[in-house]
Specification:
Blueprint: H1 15-26, E1 32-35, H2 42-51, E2 56-61, H3 64-77, E3 83-87, H4 93-96, E4 101-107, H5 122-135, E5 136-146, H6 153-165, E6 172-177, E7 188-194
Parallel strand pairs: 1-2, 1-4, 2-3, 4-5
Antiparallel strand pairs: 5-7, 6-7
Helix pairs in contact: 2-3, 5-6
Bound molecules: S-adenosylmethionine.
Amino acid sequence: MTDCSSPSITALRGPVPLAHLFLHSFLSTGHHAVDATCGNGHDTLLLAHLVGSGGHVWGFDIQAQAIAETGRRLADAGLADRVTLLQAGHEELDRHVTGPVRVVLFNLGYLPGGDRNVVTRPSTTEAALVQSLHLLETGGVLLVTLYPGHSGGTEERDTVEEWAAGLDPRTCHSWRMAQTTVAPSAPYLLLVQRAS
Ligand SMILES: C[S@@+](CC[C@H](N)C(=O)[O-])C[C@H]1O[C@@H](n2cnc3c(N)ncnc32)[C@H](O)[C@@H]1O
């Protein structure tokens, strides 16, 4: 049995640590990456760390509070110079980011500790996913954490699932990863790799 108390082993409780595990295997120094939903900046910080001094990260959030908190977190870690933070919707991704990028990360829903009425929405999420796929380099991945249990989360899940189901399997490898011991409405992870 695996001992998850070891600091070198990630406790895979929920989709976010699973997404982080993928980030560690897909990103290395010099890569370009996007955090499509900065929130409190935890994910942006990890991306900035993994791409190294030669890489670059673009971070999006519509809330000033999220951009400020993410900026503070990056500055504290001395990594602010490798990140471009944009207070903008991720549906404008292709206006700000020129590909190719290795990873685009989405952590959907609302800002933890913030206004729960400001949430990601099906139509803007889908627009951002379409743009992200175009920006990905071959072999690169989209990682999307979905929260069907949130208010509006079921509609967003349905939109994202429909988009993912329509992807061409010759050009994309698409995965859905959910824990088996949780409710069907629990958060889960979607991974889409651009194969060609
Ligand atoms: C679950 S939080 C992200 C958590 C974050 N990744 C972290 O590490 O703390 C979702 C974020 O998406 C943001 N958001 C909502 N709609 C958005 C949009 N259209 N474009 C970019 N960000 C958006 C919210 O403001 C919120 O901060």
